[in-house]
Design brief:
Elements (H helix, E strand, L loop, with lengths): L9 H7 L9 H18 L4 E6 L2 H10 L7 E6 L2 H12 L3 E6 L8 H9 L6 E7 L1 E2 L4 E2 L2 H11 L3 E5 L18 E5 L10 E6 L1 H7 L11 H8 L10 H17 L1 H21 L3 E2 L10 E5 L5 H12 L4 E2 L8 E5 L6 H17 L5 H17 L1
Parallel strand pairs: 2-3, 2-4, 4-7, 7-8
Antiparallel strand pairs: 1-9, 5-6, 8-9, 10-11, 11-13, 12-13
């Protein structure tokens, strides 16, 4: 029950265990063609969706270095560990960063983006880089509104980390006119780590023509060229593509609306149950991520609390990062998670609190009742 790597369905594991085939073979090219079409379906886009053998960080870095140039002015949103990472990446490549931040646990304010973009009369800002679902804090940012302000600027690209939102909530890439969208296989895709994905708009490809940042393996032009023949510029993780194909087929069978509704009900069940157990949500309650719920725990070391639950119930929860270590724990409800998993983790958290004399057994029962209500009717 962590926000990645997430549980992998048996059918996907079986696909992963197939004997590898040649990545230049017709069979593999046919597989790339099918998975690319299904990736476009998942992203709700007609744009190119490129597959890289690498993590979500590789996808984000590829989007940045393939479209921008040294000295370019960019806005970076930072309200958690991953927003902080994109600031570091941008600075590493010599970009001029305008940082828009918010307290960890709070969402980024779209008005701050609007004000800076509207004042950029000379159109010097080349991109806006931000995280949609901030995994470190359990906050989801208002990408729909922020992306509208980016579009109104006309010049700036949107470079979005959707690592824990693609496959968990509605991210209509074409409708919101998102330029670069990055995601990773070990999250909502329900497959092991090792693949990442980048959706590129025509505006992004046009910007790539002027990019002068150093790149080789992560040069997205190479991936676009090879995709025209359903191939890959380098040796891909063949067996992960087998797994991807199976996972995408499962997602298509379930349907986008059902996938989004499932994640919503699991978010509601966990967050409402946590409050009933006298626990405080770390994230702004109006901006809770569909993928992970961050929970504050007072008078108890969160790391020891996680260890107890792992030892006694064999359930792994995520810890806090950086200054939040020991202060919060995070419950992942992303990807291949079902109602039973959610009930089990709530019971484990509740029973552990009872053993620590923090709550009564009646409160555990009430929490499970509330969770069951959301799982049933939402």
């Amino acid at each position: 029950m962590i926000p990645g790597p997430t549980p992998v369905p048996e059918k996907v594991l079986e696909a992963l265990g197939r004997h590898p085939i040649g990545h230049r073979s017709k069979d593999f090219q046919d597989l790339v063609e099918i998975t690319t079409k299904n990736l476009q379906w998942l992203h709700q886009t007609k744009n190119d969706v490129l597959t890289i053998t690498g993590s979500g960080t590789a996808a984000m870095e590829a989007g940045i270095i393939s479209t921008l140039s040294k000295g370019d002015k960019v806005i970076c949103g930072e309200n958690g560990k991953f927003g902080q990472r994109w600031v570091k990446v941008a600075q590493e490549f010599g970009l001029e960063v305008i940082k828009i931040d918010a307290k960890w646990g709070s969402p980024l304010d779209p008005e701050n983006f609007k004000k800076i973009l509207e004042k950029d009369y000379k159109k010097e800002i080349k991109a806006v880089i931000l995280t949609h679902s901030e995994t470190s804090t359990g906050v989801i940012n208002d990408l729909k509104t922020i992306s509208s302000h980016i579009r109104n600027h006309k010049k700036a690209l949107s470079i979005i980390d959707c690592v824990t939102s693609i496959g968990a909530c509605d991210v209509p890439v074409d409708e919101w006119e998102l330029d670069i969208v990055a995601s990773g296989s070990q999250k909502g895709y329900m497959i092991p780590p090792g693949l990442s994905f980048v959706s590129m708009s025509q505006k992004a490809w046009k910007a790539s023509e002027a990019s002068n940042l150093p790149k080789f393996y992560l040069n997205l032009k190479s991936y676009k060229k090879s995709l025209s023949s359903n191939s890959n510029p380098y040796t891909p993780a063949v067996n992960l593509v087998f797994a991807l194909n199976e996972a995408l087929n499962m997602m298509k069978d379930e349907g986008l609306d059902s996938i989004f509704a499932r994640h919503k009900k699991h978010r509601l069940a966990v967050s409402e149950a946590a409050k009933t157990l006298n626990l405080q949500l770390f994230a702004d309650e109006n901006h809770l991520s569909p993928s992970v719920t961050a929970i504050q725990i007072k008078d108890i070391d969160a790391e020891q609390f996680r260890k107890t639950i792992k030892t006694k119930y064999d359930i792994l929860l995520a810890g806090g990062q950086d200054h939040l270590k020991g202060k919060i724990f995070r419950v992942g409800h992303l990807g291949y998670i079902n109602d039973r998993d959610v009930i089990s983790v709530i019971a484990a958290i509740g029973n552990t609190l009872v053993e620590l004399n923090k709550i009564s057994t009646e409160q555990v029962g009430e929490a499970l009742k509330i969770a069951s209500f959301h799982l049933k009717v939402t």
